[in-house]
Amino acid sequence: MRLNNQNEIALRDHMLATYNMLRRGLVVLGFAFPLLLWGIGKYAYGIPLQRSMSAYYFAPYPDSPDEKTFPMRIWFAGILFAIGTALYLYKGFTNWENVALNLAGGFAALVALIPMMIDCGTDCTFSPHGIFAGLLFLCLAFVALLCAQATLAYLPPQHKDLLPGFRLRYKVIGALLVASPLVAFVLTRTTNGRSYFIFWAEAFCVWCFAWYWLEKTREMKKSNAEKEALEGKLQPPTNKGGKVLPKLSV
């Protein structure tokens, strides 16, 4: 398919910009999420740093804790819904990636809809809230470890030197997306949920999520895969011997 008029080119550019903005939005939301909880909670409502990100859902005003008013629940649930919606709307390059991102989007919504119990201590780790949060990050780790490299085959020859770096960073991110929730889990179990390091372990995990989308944005900026796909010119990737590489599918 050849784009032969300005309307078709404008539509293509609009579609490319939509995907790019979705990725950039996930980067911003991921990096900002923990900082917004801490900063808005402290400076807008006088709420001190909580021992976990989820604890902000039921964090009361310090001067009137008996009023049962929890102002940060709006921010916590709202950002999670925004992240979940973006993950669902973003269509993966392979079927496996698409399924994993759809599941991650659904789990993000469930984390927002089913908060953890108040002062649940070690029980927080096995609550539905904690389980859905763990599944969310497992889905994202799956994408980083097993799906992210599918688009690397489409990097143009002038950018092939970037392949090892992208592969390494995707593997590191995937490993951290598994390790950091485990660290938060161990801290919760060993401190009865009372360590502030739990918050920072969870924040680090969310920042790894944002790092993945930053790397994917950088990669797709170097690649012509999306543009060629929209123009109907994308060819299956091949190895050095010219053999077509297998495509992940479900």
Could you describe the 3D structure shown?
This protein is an all-alpha fold and 250 residues long. The chain has one domain. Helices cover 63% and strands 0% of the residues. It has helices spanning 6-45, 73-89, 95-113, 128-147, 163-191, 197-222, 225-230. The longest helix has 40 residues, at 6-45. It is elongated and about 65 Å long. 34% of the residues are buried. Residues 239-250 have low confidence and may be disordered.
Summarize the structure.
This protein is mainly α and 250 residues long. It has seven helices and no strands. It has helices spanning 6-45, 73-89, 95-113, 128-147, 163-191, 197-222, 225-230.
Strand composition percent: under 5%
Written as H for each helix and E for each strand, in order along the chain, the element string is HHHHHHH
**Shape verdict:** elongated
The average pLDDT is 85
Task: Give short descriptive properties of this protein.
mainly alpha, disordered C terminus, elongated, about 250 residues
Topology (SSEs and partners):
Blueprint: H1 6-45, H2 73-89, H3 95-113, H4 128-147, H5 163-191, H6 197-222, H7 225-230
Helix pairs in contact: 1-2, 1-6, 2-3, 3-4, 4-5, 5-6
